[in-house]
From TrEMBL:
<keyword id="KW-0862">Zinc</keyword>
<keyword id="KW-0479">Metal-binding</keyword>
<dbReference type="GO" id="GO:0016702">
    <property type="term" value="F:oxidoreductase activity, acting on single donors with incorporation of molecular oxygen, incorporation of two atoms of oxygen"/>
</dbReference>
<dbReference type="InterPro" id="IPR004183">
    <property type="entry name" value="Xdiol_dOase_suB"/>
</dbReference>
<dbReference type="Pfam" id="PF02900">
    <property type="entry name" value="LigB"/>
</dbReference>
<protein>
    <submittedName>
        <fullName>Aromatic ring-opening dioxygenase LigB</fullName>
    </submittedName>
</protein>
<dbReference type="InterPro" id="IPR014436">
    <property type="entry name" value="Extradiol_dOase_DODA"/>
</dbReference>
<comment type="similarity">
    <text>Belongs to the DODA-type extradiol aromatic ring-opening dioxygenase family.</text>
</comment>
<dbReference type="GO" id="GO:0008198">
    <property type="term" value="F:ferrous iron binding"/>
</dbReference>
<keyword id="KW-0223">Dioxygenase</keyword>
<keyword id="KW-0560">Oxidoreductase</keyword>
<dbReference type="GO" id="GO:0008270">
    <property type="term" value="F:zinc ion binding"/>
</dbReference>
<feature type="domain" description="Extradiol ring-cleavage dioxygenase class III enzyme subunit B">
    <location>
        <begin position="35"/>
        <end position="239"/>
    </location>
</feature>
Length: 275
C-alpha cells in the first residue's frame, strides 16, 4: 500500500478538549482527509523517558496529567483500543537500530495524545499506542527516530506527533486569557521555521535554537517542538508538506499543524471537509 502521511499537531492547553476554537475543526477535517489508518503511533512531550518506551496496553487508558482545570475535563475519556502488536513492532525497529527500546504497560495516553486524537478520530475506534520522547536529546535524534519509523507508514500506521509550534507557558500564566492578542515575536519565529521547513534546510532546523529569531522565547525548553522532527523524519517525502495555520491561543501558544509526505492532504482538501 502507499505510505500514509505523518502529522504534527499542536495541542496547546488541555482546555482544547473543551474549547475547540479554530484548532478542533481543523483537526477533525484533517482526520477525515487522511487515508484511514489501520493503527496510530502517537508521540507526545508529556511522556518523556531516558530511552524509548512504547505502550503495549490492549485497551488504552486516558491519563489526566494536569491539575487545576474544570471538573468536566477530568471526566473526558478516549477509550480507543490499544495496539500491542504495533508496540512490539516499533520496539523491534528501534532495537534493530541500536536503541534500547522497551514496551511499557504502565502508561496510556496523556493529554498530549488523547486531546488531539478526540478531534482527529472522535469515534476512538482506531487502535493506538504511544511512543515516549527523549527530551534530553537533540532534534537530530528525533528526526532519526522518525526515519526509523518511516516503514510503518506503508503498513497502515499513522504517525501523529503532538506538541506545540510555540510554547511559552510563563507568558501564558502571566495573563491567562484565551482571547489575548498573539505576541508579535511569534510571527518572526513561525516565518523562519516554516521557510526552512519548506526548503528542507535540515542543518538550520536542527540548529533552530541558535538560528531562529526568538527561538528561546518561543520555546524556553524544546520538548514541545521535538515531536515535529519525528513527524518530519517519518514521512516518505518530507518536502511534500502542508502547513495548517490556526493562529495562537493565550497569546503565546501557536496551534499550527503540518502534514508531511506524498499523501499529505492539501489545504483545499481539508478546507472542503471542514465545511
Amino acid at each position: 500500500m502507499s505510505a500514509l502521511p505523518s502529522l504534527f499537531v499542536s495541542h496547546g492547553s488541555p482546555l482544547l478538549a473543551l474549547e475547540p476554537g479554530r484548532t478542533g475543526p481543523l483537526l477533525t477535517a484533517l482526520g477525515r482527509a487522511v487515508p484511514r489508518p489501520r493503527e496510530i503511533l502517537v508521540i507526545s512531550p508529556h511522556w518523556s523517558t531516558p530511552t524509548p518506551r512504547v505502550g503495549n496496553l490492549a485497551q488504552q487508558r486516558t491519563i489526566h496529567d494536569f491539575g487545576g482545570f474544570p471538573r468536566e475535563l477530568y471526566g473526558l475519556q478516549y477509550p480507543a483500543p490499544g495496539a500491542p502488536a504495533l508496540a512490539e513492532r516499533t520496539v523491534q525497529i528501534l532495537r534493530d537500530a541500536g536503541l534500547p527500546a522497551a514496551t511499557d504497560d504502565q502508561w496510556g495516553l496523556d493529554h498530549g495524545a488523547w486531546v488531539p486524537l478526540r478531534y482527529l478520530f472522535p469515534d476512538a475506534d482506531v487502535p493506538v499506542t504511544q511512543l515516549s520522547l527523549q527530551r534530553q536529546m537533540r532534534p537530530e535524534y528525533h528526526y532519526r527516530v522518525g526515519q526509523l519509523l518511516a516503514p510503518l507508514a506503508r503498513e497502515g500506521v499513522l504517525v501523529v506527533a503532538s506538541g506545540s509550534f510555540t510554547h511559552n507557558l510563563h507568558e501564558v500564566f502571566r495573563a491567562p486569557s484565551e482571547d489575548r492578542a498573539e505576541a508579535p515575536y511569534l510571527a518572526e519565529f513561525v516565518a523562519w521555521f516554516t521557510e526552512h521547513l519548506a526548503t528542507m534546510d535540515l542543518d538550520a532546523l536542527f540548529d533552530y535554537r541558535a538560528r531562529a529569531p526568538h527561538a528561546e522565547r518561543a520555546h524556553p525548553t524544546d520538548e514541545h517542538l521535538l515531536p515535529l522532527y519525528v513527524a518530519l523524519g517519518a514521512a516518505d517525502d518530507a518536502a511534500k508538506q502542508t502547513h495548517f495555520d490556526t493562529g495562537a491561543t493565550y497569546g503565546a501558544l501557536r496551534m499550527d499543524a503540518f502534514a508531511f509526505g506524498n499523501a499529505a492532504p492539501s489545504l483545499a482538501e481539508v478546507a472542503a471537509l471542514a465545511q
